[in-house]
Amino acid sequence: MDRLLHKAKNYQIRTARVRSKIHGTKEKPRLSVHISLKHVIAQLIDDDSRTTLVYVSSIGSKNTATMTDKAIKVGQDLAKNAQKIGVKQVVMDRGGKLYHGRVKALAEAAREKGLEF
Q1: Both ends of the chain: CA-CA distance in Å?
Q2: Which residues pair with 52 in a beta bridge?
Q3: Hey, which residues does 43 pair with through a beta bridge?
Q4: Rounded distance, CA 75 to CA 70, Å?
Q5: Which three-class secondary structure state does DSSP give residue 116?
């Protein structure tokens, strides 16, 4: 059990370290990414007013694709919705995850659809 507590504590430390260095505004919101075992969730957050501008997730989709495919789809949908509200630039918040694999796939899909970060 100590191993799992240690692992969770390290994840919290990494998340706090990343979050302390970035800040989202209305013009350049924070792109927060959360990847669970089954779903991918991304949202654009304005930290000044503490509001979520855009929220996209793979929850509720009938797609039985791989997690990387879900991340790509969420990234594309997020970029489309961000353009609807006039957001072109974002600040990436990867949480405690490393920037590779699913997080990277989501980011690259959002870049291809027009988001800059």
Answers
A1: 39
A2: 45
A3: 32, 55
A4: 9
A5: strand
Residue with tokens 């240690």: 6
Residues 25-55: tens digit of each pLDDT: 999 999 999 999 999 999 999 999 999 999 9
Q: What is the spatial distance between Cα 67 and Cα 97, in angstroms, rounded to a whole number?
A: 15
Beta strands in 1-117 (DSSP E): 30-35, 40-46, 51-57, 91-93
pTM recorded for the entire structure: 0.87
**Could you give the 3-state DSSP secondary structure of residue 55?**
strand
**Assigned token pair, 115:** 């988001």
Q: What is the distance between the alpha carbons of residues 69 and 43, in angstroms, rounded to a whole number?
A: 18
Note the CATH number of domain 2-112.
Answer: 3.30.420.100
